[in-house]
Amino acid sequence: MTEKEKQELAKQLEADLLKLYDSPILNLEQLKRALNYRSVAAVKQAINRNTFPVPTLVMPNRRNRFALAKDVAAFLAKQAFNKKE
To answer: In terms of domain of life, where is this protein from (predicted)?
Structure first.
């Protein structure tokens, strides 16, 4: 599979995430669902251990961390293609 196909899949996944969550920024609950973690606590633990597969960000005056839907989509597309290769 080509890099172009991976980019197309990432774009489609990003569009699906945007449609599902209506925001380009995902909170911990949304990340839990999108990446199939068992709980929000598991997401927080992975972030604290630096094993979370997607870069997260801190927003001013907000308590928790967030991730961009684009980064989540790119990660999922990469994983889908790694499995096929």
So the answer is: Bacteria
